[in-house]
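Researcher: I'm preparing a figure for a lab meeting and need a structural model of a single chain. I don't have an experimental structure, so a prediction will have to do for now. The sequence is pasted below. Please return the structure as tokens so I can convert it later.
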Amino acid sequence: MAENEYVPLFETRQVKGRILFRWNAVIRIPFIHRLSQRFGKELPGIDIFVCTADPLLEPPSMVVNTVLSMMAYDYPPEKLSVYLSDDGGSNLTFYAMLEAANFSKTWLPFCKKFKVEPMSPEAYFRTASEPLNVQEWPSVKRLYEEMKMRIETTTKLNQIPEHIYKQHKGFREWNFVTSKRDHQTILQILIDGRDTNAVDIEGNPLPTLVYLAREKRPQYHHHFKAGAMNALLEVHGLDANGGPCFIGTGCFHRREALCGKKYEKNFRFDLKKLNNTKVNERASLLEETCKVLASCTFEHNTTWGKEMGLIYGFPAEDIVTGLSVQCRRWKSMFLDPERDGFLGVAPITLLQLLVQHKRWTEGHLQVFLSKYCPLLYGYKKIPLKLRLAYCAYNLWAANCLATLYYVVVPCLCLLKGITLFPKISSPWVLPFAYVAFSHHAYSLGEFLWCGGTFLGWCNDQRMWLFKRTTSYLFASFETILKLLGYSQLAFVITTKVADEDISKRYDQEMIEFGVTSPMFDILATLAILNLLGSFGAIKKVTMHADKGFKVLDQFGLQILLCLVLVTINLPVYQALFFRMDKGKMPSSVTYKSIIFALLACTLAVY
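Model: Understood. Here is the structure written out token by token.
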């Protein structure tokens, strides 16, 4: 191959789509083996950010697994740096990071030697069976379990043992910590990748590992996760339509793109110049020098949070930041490799999922109603089809209105005897039937094509209904209250841990209710309302045999809709009336929902 010949790293395939942001879908196939042909050893340095905020909701043992899997990336260790942002400012998390730094000396060479997948030790040892002729396997597993036990014991006691406290100077920082919302910057370089002594048990260099708890003071707004990400920056489907959205995780950014620089046609990424940038200060000096960058006052009178870094003022800071980056002419690319690039943790209880989607939906709607509205902010900066594609997400919340109409009104009108749809015998029923059938047939086909199952698709439709009638509805109200000045921006952390009983029911594919919530009041009331509507329709058909066919002809589509909604809500009925485990619907929710549904039916009939 000629020395100056261009070596493509991706193959692009186009796929036809049905809706706006699928009109020109693209599948990209990477040629990883060509990286060395293209760049040789001049690969860029990569900084990986890991965020945590609460050692109870996000256990340190889980954070350690995330960090170790990042450190084990198949990438030159001298060009890899992992930063943990601890927004909870917990010495328990710091202790866990010290344990991770020590265990990485054994784990990283083990991963490289035996091509370990997945590279999270917890996931690996839980799923993998002991291989033959691998003498290191039992000893590495024992070391991990011992480390995990020490971390979990310390977390349970909520106290660092005295002998451990004296082992590292970093623990002295917590002598000056008042609370997790009132403390100085804590910055510790746990592994300095520049240090020739920072090697694993086989003498190979280790990646840099840094712990950061940015300064927090009660009188300064800390801007939640966006502020944490910017503090780290300061111390170092839509692809073919203009680029996919930034959704907070599982992605890579150019530093110039995040730091406010506009893309220009003459931009050149000079790897040699970048890799020749050296920092000669000792780790201890760097720690003290960089602390000011994570202070509360560093961003005052700067463009951080406005034009640089992640944008402040939105629960969905990732979406608005990605839009801002794209409006500065940077392009994004979606890559879905055969081997999963990232693995994460998702909520396993229904309420956690609904609360998480409420925050996302609220953030999207606030973006749409702000100066960052894609239709206006992106004018002449990004393609129209990309601006419209953003709106499909920004207007999630608005979908609650149409969904609530179809869930509530047809049922009540059926009880009242009011027809909403054409008769079954009328030719005008065909457009309704065509739209309903084609939409769901395409949705099912797409779900199966992506590797799903029919049962998975049914559950997806169920969650679609639950989210639209609760998360989207509450997000709309919260946004309205915020615009009127009656509510303040808040950030709810999703718990990453569940007790054994909940995990067991999750493995049995049982939806977890178990607690009281206004969201569950709405779900249960709507479910019972459609159940009563179905009973009323069946009564009309069976009690008057001579008029049964006439009733079916006149109300056929409404009856079908009620029956479909009853089928979707089967897990709700089980939780309300039949389940006896702790994951059932609380009795108070059951009583309230029955009263609300009966009251609505009574008012509709009379």
